[in-house]
Each structure stands twice: as structure tokens, then as C-alpha cells.
Amino acid sequence: MARAVVIGGGVGGLAAGAALRRGGWEVTVLERAPAIEPVGSGLAIAANALKALDVLGVGDRIRELATVEGRLGLRRADGRWLTHTTEAVADAKYGDSVVLMVRATLLEVLMDALGREHLRLGTTVSEVDADKGLVRTDAGDLEADLVVGADGIGSATRRALFPAHPEPVYSGVTAWRGLVPRGGLTVPRCESWGRGTVFGIHLLAGDVVYVYATDVLPAGTVHADERAELLRRFGDWHDPIPALLRAADPARIIRNDVYRTAEPLPAFHRGRVALVGDAAHAMTPNLGQGACQAIEDGVVLAHHAGQASRGPGGALPDGALAAYSAARVKRTAKIVQRSWSLCRMSKLRNPLAVGLRDFGLSAAARLSPDLMLRSMDEVLSWRPPAGAGR
């Protein structure tokens, strides 16, 4: 049986591991942390990723755990809608809409799909030999026919494969995230833009509200009280933003700088090693596609590797990982760039530029009511490779 070692137990690593196991691979997922922490944030799973999760056999479970109805779209800081759509319209067009859920819940589902006995926590990788498929860890060496680098935006695996390639760069924005009890509030499903600022609100299962915000700040900026900073920036925005911030637990607000891949990698593989998720294509969160693309990566990689594992001796022959790169590099580069374009629009601070931006979005939405969906058609209409998961 062909053997795979996955470095990283996040969304991309678990999805790749689960997909490879369904393809008949013997899989070990290595995670440096001693436990999969329930990070207090939500994430979007759009129609394209739901189709990929169907390949893993967990798509319907995700839909059941995270069903939200109603209007969703983009607003101004005063609450006026700039453009919007509904779940029903998206579902009719793509066979799915977008669901939002707690990140920890998705990880739990993916760990079940992988099989928890295949996950090794508290294991640190020190070196990867791409030609031999050798992974050195603090618990001993592992040999594999395929090594998957899913070790995130600061990926040491990526640096080992492409040491001369530029590292991800700071996007210029800091992001805050948190989960807040609904507390009887009427919660729309929207993202609102101001002058260089963004605030998103989404109701999740269990009457929990996922909130996130961004602002233009120097990298590394830290505040003594992040909730107080959020209230200072967004306390006069439309309802229910001020009330949600007042109800938030300051200790559970997460803040991090946002980085992106400015120059696409020439390939997502070298030797016996393939990269998935942020290790391959870090993007700003503006399209809500970071986790979605990582899930796609895992399914597509397993599709090509699965075909290869049926070759002589079950090993990974030449061409399988090249086919994976060919399928993923161009698509993800486009999505990284489109997300960055939205980020740049959201960063505008000049009042005239902001006014023109908002007027343009509103006017375009009136001329084309399905503007939101049409602009995402190439992303959301993706389907897994024929035969994937069989």
C-alpha cells in the first residue's frame, strides 16, 4: 500500500489526509500542536468547497450543521445595502449556497473523516527530503511515497522546496475575529465597508454570531484592549454591530495581521512533496475562499495521487504531482489576485474614492441584480475531477 505523510493538521492537511485515505493510501497526519485547539472563529464554506466535501463523504453533514437562510450581501457603515443576494438564488445557480460555521466544527468533521488514529499530535517536523520522501521529526523519521506540506502560511516545507521564492507579504490590514452570543439581537448576514475598514456579521448554528473586522494598520500593531479598539472604530456603525461588540468577551477576540502570496509559486510540488492550502497560496480573506481552496487542493491531489497509487508497486510515478500542479496553480493564483483586488478596494480611505466605490457598486447592482453571484461564477461553479473519490 502506498504511504503518505501529511505535515499539518489544519483544514488543508486534514482534507488531504481524508481524501488520500479514501483513495486507499496509508496516511499519517503530523500536527505540531499538542491538541487541535477550538479557535474562536468562523469560516465560510462555499458551493465549490461543499462539492469537494461531498467527495470526502461529509458534505451533507456540513450542510446540516451550518444552515443559515436569508439575504446576504455588502453594506455601508450606515447600513445601506450596496449589493445583496439570497441563499435561494445561489442554490438554484450552483446547487449549493455558502454556509458559515465554527472552524473547530469543520476540523472535528474532517478528523472523523480521516480517522483520529491517523493523526499524531505534538509532533514537530525538522526536515523534509523531497527526493527521498523522508520526513524527520522529533519522534523519529518517516518514509513516504508522498509527503503533503500543509503547514500554513509560514510553511517550512515550502521554503525547503523553493528556497529562493519570495515569502508571503503583509497585505496592510490587521484582522479581528470572534464569536459572540446572539442574545436576542436581530442579526443580518452581511459585510459592511467604511473608509479603509470592514466589519462582517454572520449568524451561526446555536445562536452564535461570528464577527470579524479589518483596518489598515502597520504590521505588528497590538492594543492592550482589542475590544475597546473595535468599539472605538466601529461603535457608531449600523445595528447590531455596537451591541455585538459590547457583548463580546475581550479575552476571546483574536487579532492577526493578514499576509498573502504576492508571487505565485512555479509549481505546488517537487520530488515526492506536494503543497496544499496556505503553504501553497496564502490569500486575504475577502472572497472567503481560503479554507475552500485548501479543501479543493486536498481532493484534487488525492485524485491524481489515487490514480498513481494503482500503478506498479503502488508507488507514486512521475507525472502525478505535475498533474496536480497543473490543475491548481493557475486557478488558485486567480483567486488570490481577485481576493487581493477586493482587499485593495476595502482599504480605500479617501472620502471621494470611497464615495465613488460605493456608488459604483450600488449602480452596478441595480443594473445587474445578480452581480454578487456573477462576479463569483468562475470560483463557485468549480466541480471536483470526474471520478474523484471513487
From TrEMBL:
Gene3D superfamilies: FAD/NAD(P)-binding domain. Residues 4-161, 267-339 form the FAD-binding domain. It comes from Nonomuraea thailandensis. GO terms for molecular function: FAD binding; monooxygenase activity. It comes from the Bacteria. It holds the Pfam family FAD_binding_3. Keywords: Monooxygenase, Oxidoreductase. PANTHER family: MONOOXYGENASE, PUTATIVE (AFU_ORTHOLOGUE AFUA_6G14510)-RELATED. This is 2-polyprenyl-6-methoxyphenol hydroxylase-like FAD-dependent oxidoreductase. The keyword Nucleotide-binding does not apply.
